[in-house]
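FAQ

Q: What does a record look like?
A: Structure on top, sequence underneath. For example:
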C-alpha cells in the first residue's frame, strides 16, 4: 500500500484520453464531460434518441431483451478505449469500462438488477487467438462489484462465426443463429442442469452492440431455457449500417 502511494506520487495516474495527471485515475474532469455519453436513448435497443423512450423500430419489432444498458455511443475516444482493451489487452481500459457500466447499472431508476450476468462467449479458437474474452472479463468484474452471479461459464459458442462487422445486417442474424448453446455437463457428472428455476432475470454482457444480432441470439437461447427476463449490458452502441432492420429484431416466436 505504501509502495503504491509512493508510486502514485512519482507517477500519478494519467487521464486515459489526454494524458494529464489525474489523481483519481480514469479520465480527467474535462475529458469526462466530452465523452460520447449515450444520455438519451431507446430503452430497448439503446439507439441514440433526442429524448428517452422507445425508438420506432422497437415499438413495432422489439428485440428479445427487455432493457439495454449502454452508457456510451461508439465514438472517439471510447472506441479507442474499447479497442485497446480488446486487441491490446489493456486491462486498465477494461476496468474503466466496467466501472462505467457499473455506475449505469446502479443509477437505473426503478429497475431491478439481474440475478446473474452472462458474457457473450467467444469460440474457443477465437479466444485462443485473442488470449481472453473481453466480454467475460467485463462480466466477471461487474458480477463481483455488484455482488451478483457470473454465469458466463454456462454458455458456449459451438460454431465459429464470421466476424459480424464484415456482414450486412441481414446476414448477421443467420450468421449467429444457433451458434450458442447452454453448456451441457459431461455424462454422469453430478452438476445440476442450468439454469435453475429460480433464475429468472439475466443480463447478457458484451463490449459493443451494433445490429444486436449476436445479443439477440444469446437472448433467444436464454428464453428457450426458461429465463423470463433478459437485459443487455454493453459498453457502447454503434450505429448499424444499414440501419436496424426488422429481421434483426424479431422477438422470439415471431
Ligand atoms: Zn483528459
Ligand atoms: Zn429501439
Amino acid at each position: 500500500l505504501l509502495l503504491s502511494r509512493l508510486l502514485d506520487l512519482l507517477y500519478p495516474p494519467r487521464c486515459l484520453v489526454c494524458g494529464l495527471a489525474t489523481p483519481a485515475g480514469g479520465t480527467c474532469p474535462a475529458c469526462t464531460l466530452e465523452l460520447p455519453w449515450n444520455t438519451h436513448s431507446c430503452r430497448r435497443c439503446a439507439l441514440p434518441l433526442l429524448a428517452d423512450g422507445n425508438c420506432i423500430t422497437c415499438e413495432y419489432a422489439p428485440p428479445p431483451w427487455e432493457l439495454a444498458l449502454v452508457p456510451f455511443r461508439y465514438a472517439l475516444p471510447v472506441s479507442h478505449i474499447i479497442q485497446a482493451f480488446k486487441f491490446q489487452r489493456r486491462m486498465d481500459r477494461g476496468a474503466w469500462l466496467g466501472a462505467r457500466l457499473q455506475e449505469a447499472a446502479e443509477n437505473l431508476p426503478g429497475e431491478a438488477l439481474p440475478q446473474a450476468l452472462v458474457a457473450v462467449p467467444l469460440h474457443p479458437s477465437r479466444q485462443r487467438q485473442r488470449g481472453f474474452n473481453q466480454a467475460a472479463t467485463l462480466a466477471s468484474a461487474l458480477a463481483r462489484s455488484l455482488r451478483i452471479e457470473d454465469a458466463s461459464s454456462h454458455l458456449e459458442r459451438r460454431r465459429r462465426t464470421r466476424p459480424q462487422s464484415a456482414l450486412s445486417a441481414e446476414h448477421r442474424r443467420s450468421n449467429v443463429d444457433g451458434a450458442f448453446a447452454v453448456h451441457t455437463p459431461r455424462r454422469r457428472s453430478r452438476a445440476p442442469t442450468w439454469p435453475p428455476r429460480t433464475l429468472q432475470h439475466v443480463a447478457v454482457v458484451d463490449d459493443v452492440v451494433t445490429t444486436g444480432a449476436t445479443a439477440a441470439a444469446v437472448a433467444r437461447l436464454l428464453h428457450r431455457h426458461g429465463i423470463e427476463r433478459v437485459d443487455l449490458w454493453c459498453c457502447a452502441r454503434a450505429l448499424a449500417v444499414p440501419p436496424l432492420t426488422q429481421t434483426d429484431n424479431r422477438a422470439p416466436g415471431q
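Q: Is there anything notable about this one?
A: Residues 242-254 have pLDDT under 50 and may be disordered.
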